[in-house]
Amino acid sequence: MKVRQGYFDEMFDDGSAVRAPYRAYQDWFEREDPSWLLLKADDAEHSFRRKGITFNVYGDEDTTERLIPFDVVPRVLAAHEWRQLEKGIEQRVVAINAFLYDIYHRQEIIRAGRIPESLFIDNAAFLPQMVGVDPPGNVYTHIVGIDLVRTGESSFAVLEDNARTPSGVSYMLENRETMLHMFPELFSDIRVQPIEDYPMRLRDALVRCQPASSTGQPVVAVLTPGIFNSAYFEHAFLAEQMGAELVQGDDLRVIDGRVTMRTTQGDLPIDVLYRRVDDDFIDPLNFDPDSLLGVPGLFDVYRAGNVTLANAPGTGIADDKAIYSYMPDIIEFYTGEKPILDNVRTWRCGEPDSLAYVLDHLDELVVKEVHGSGGYGMLIGPAASTGEREEFAAKLRATPEAYIAQPTLALSSVPILTQSGLAPRHVDLRPFVLVSPDGVNITPGGLTRVALRENSLVVNSSQGGGTKDTWVLED
Amino acid sequence: MLGRTAGGLYWMFRYLERSENTARLVETGLRISLTKSSDKVDDWSSILDTAAAKELYLEHHASVDDDKVIDFLLRDRSNPSSVLSVIEAARMSARQVRTALTREVWEATNDCWMRLHDVLRQPVSRQRLPDVLAAIRQESALVRGALHGTMLRNDIYNFCRLGTFIERADNTARILDVKYYVLLPSPLLIGTQVDNVQWETLLRALSAQRAYHWQHRGPADAQSIAEFLVLDPRMPRSLAFCYRKIAANLGYLGYDYGDKPRSHEIAIRLHHSVAARNISEIFGEGLHEFLLARVADTRELGEQIEADYRFTR
Fold first, then answer.
1. What pLDDT, in 10s, does the model give residues B80-98?
2. CB-CB under 8 Å, B92 with A251
3. Does A264 sit within 8 Å of B155, measured CB to CB?
4. ipTM, 2 decimals?
C-alpha cells in the first residue's frame, strides 16, 4: 500500500513495514481472498440496514434514513498506547468535573486569575440556574466523549471535548458485533479487549448517581426527542441494552415534586433520567419557553434533588470553544499535574498578537466561531478561495473575540478496504468515558471515524465519513 | 409499560393486519374479474366499498377503473389505508416501540417494510401483481411468526394481539355489512350466478373459501355462510373468534395488572353478542342492524382500550 507523504499511517509507518499492533491482523489479511472480504463488506452493509442502524438526515425527503458506511479493516491500538491515552483522558475528565463544580460554586479559578471572567459573561453555555446546585454524587458529566487525533507515533491531541450529550457509542458497539459475527476466527487468533459491557457500565454509572431521595432499585429512563431525531437509533439501542424505559417529553409530567412517566397502570416516578435532549429543551418553564419537547417543572424537581439528570444541565460550559484553549490551565489548576494529553494549538483571536498571526496565516489555518457548532461559520484556510479568505478576514477584524484559529492537522491514516485493495484514509477517535462517584471508567478503544474520500480530512458522517471497529489489544 | 408504547404496539399490529386485509381484497377483485363474466366495474366498486375507500377514491378519480383501483389500494400515499401507507405506519410505530420488541420482530417488520417499499416503488403491472400480493401476505406472516415465536406472553404481547383482533373484527364486520344483502334469504336470487359470485367474493375476502367448504360439504347457502363468518369460533376471521380473543387478551391484562377497567365490560358484551347464539335469531333481529351495531361496538371498544391504558395524554 502506498501511504500519503507527510502523514502518519497507523498500519504501515513508512509504506512497507507493518507496525507491531497490526502484525497479527496483517498475517490474517494476507491469507484471505480480497474478493471474499469485499463480499463480507456487502454483507455488513445489508446487516446494518436490516437492523435499522441508520441515522436520519434532516431535510432530505427521499431517503430520510441513511447508513453510516462501515469499513471492515479494524483500527488497532497496542495496550501500551492505550494505557497512555487512558491516563490522559482520565486526568482531563476529572478536571472537567472539578471545573464544572467550581464554576457553578465559588469560581476559585476566576479568583485565582487563571481564566478571565469575561469568558462566562453572555456565554449561553453557562447556565445561571445551575449556580449553587449540587448534582447527585457531585457528578456533572456522567458520559463524556473525547475527540482525539493522532499525528505521529506517539503524538495524540484532543481536538474537542463532548461534555453535553456525546453520541456514537451505539456504532462503537454495533461495529464490534458486526466484526465478531463476520470474522469470528480473527477474535480467536487475536486477543482484543472487550467493550460489550458498556451498556451495563453506563447503567451502573447512572444508578450510582441516584438521588438521595430514592431508595432501592432506581427507575432509569432515556429521554429522546423522538423518532425523527438523527440519533434516535442510539437512544432506543441504549435504553434496550440497559433495560431502561425510552421516554419522550409528552410521556413525562411533574406530579407531587417527582418526575413521572405515563404508564398503562398509572404514573410511575423516575429516579434517573439519561436525557439526550439539549439543555434548552428540557423544561419550558425554566429554559426555552417555546420548547415542545420538555417537561414543565423538571428543573425544579432536579434542584430539589428528586431526580438525577445525566448529564447535568450546564455542562456545555466545559466544552465551549472559548474554554477549550484554557484546558491545559484548567487541568493544572484542579489536578496539580501537567496535562498528559496535548491540546491542539489554538490562537484566541481576541488577543492582538494572535489576531495578527492568524490574519497573516489564514491560508494554513482553520478558523472557528467560538459559539458555533456543526461546522457552521467556519473557514478551512487551505481549501478556501482568496475571496472567501478576504471576506473572513473582515469578519475577524470586526469581532476578533468571536473566533479561534487552529492549524490544519495532519490526521493519521488507517487503511480501508477498496475494490483495489488497501488504501490509506484519515481517521480520528472518540473514546467514551463514564463518570460515577466511584471514579472514571473508559471503554477500551472508542469510535473511529474515517474520511472515506481519498485525501479528505473531514471524518463527519454528514460529509462522507464512515466508521471502523477499534481494537485495543490485550497485553 | 409506557402508555405510548402500548399504543404503538396496538397500532403497529392494527396496521399490519390492515395491510393483509387490503391485499386480500385486491386478490379477490382480481380473481373475480379474471374468472367471471360479471360486470367488472361493479365488482371493483364493491371492493372499494368493502375497503371503506370509495369516497376517497372518487375524490381522486372520475371513474372506477380496475388498474386505478388496484393502484389506489396498494400504493397510493393519499390513501391512508393503502398497503404502502399502512406498512410505513406500522414500521414507524415499530421504531417508536423498538425497545418493547424482540430483535426478530423488529427485523421482520423492517424487512417487511424494505421489501414492500421496494416492490411497490413502481406501479404494479398485471404480470407482477400476483407476486406482489404474495409478498404482502408473506411479509406480514413473517412478522406474525416472529411475534409468536419470540415474544414473552406479557402485557406487550397482549397489546399486539388486541390491535390485531380489533382491526380484524372491524374488517370482518364491515365486509359483511357491505355484502349483508347477499346473505339474506331471497326467493328471487337463490342459486343464481349472481349469488354464487357474491358469496365467493365474501368468502375469498375473508380467506374463508377453503375453510367453509371443509366445514360444509355440499352446495353453499346463505345461512350457513353467515353462520360461519359470524358465529363459528373455529374460523379465525369470524366475529366470534375475534371477540373471544379480545376478551381473552384483555383478561390476561386484567389478571396481570389486577384491574379491570371499562373496556373489559364492553369486551364481555361483544363476546356475548355472538357466543351461544344461532344465526336465525340474528336474521330475526335483522342482519344489517346486527352488523351495524358490531361495527359501532368494535369502535367503542377500541377507543375505550386507548383511554383505559392511557395510550395518549
1. 999 999 999 999 999 999 9
2. no
3. yes
4. 0.85
The beta-carbon neighbor of B106 closest among A52, A232, A250 is A52
Q: Which residues contact A129 (CB under 8 A, 6 or more apart)?
A: A286, A287, A299, A303, A313, A314
DSSP-derived pairing of the beta strands A220-223 and A272-275: parallel
> In terms of C-beta density within 10 A (0-12 exposed, 13-18 middle, 19 or more buried), how is residue A439 classed?
exposed
CATH number of A345-407: 3.30.1490.270
Of A312, A348, A395, nearest in space to A140 by CA: A312
CA A46 to mean position of chain CA atoms? 26
Percentages of chain A per state (helix, strand, coil), in multiples of 5: 35, 25, 40
Number of separate helices (H) and strands (E) present in chain A: 13, 23
8 Å CB contact between A291 and A327: no
Q: What pTM did the predictor assign?
A: 0.90
A433: left (phi over 0), alpha (psi -120 to 50) or beta: beta
Note the pLDDT tens digit of each residue in A58-113: 544 445 677 889 999 999 999 999 999 999 999 999 999 999 999 999 999 999 99
**Where does CATH 3.30.1490.270 sit in chain A?**
345-407
Closest alpha carbon to B103 in A343, A50, A425: A50
User: Chains A and B: how many Cβ contacts under 8 Å?
Assistant: 56
Interchain CB distance below 8 Å, B2 and A251:
yes
Distance from CA of A250 to the nearest CA of B (A): 7
* Kind plus residue range of the DSSP H or E element containing B38: none
- Chain A contacts of B155, Cβ < 8 Å? 264
Contact A307, A273 (CB under 8 A): yes
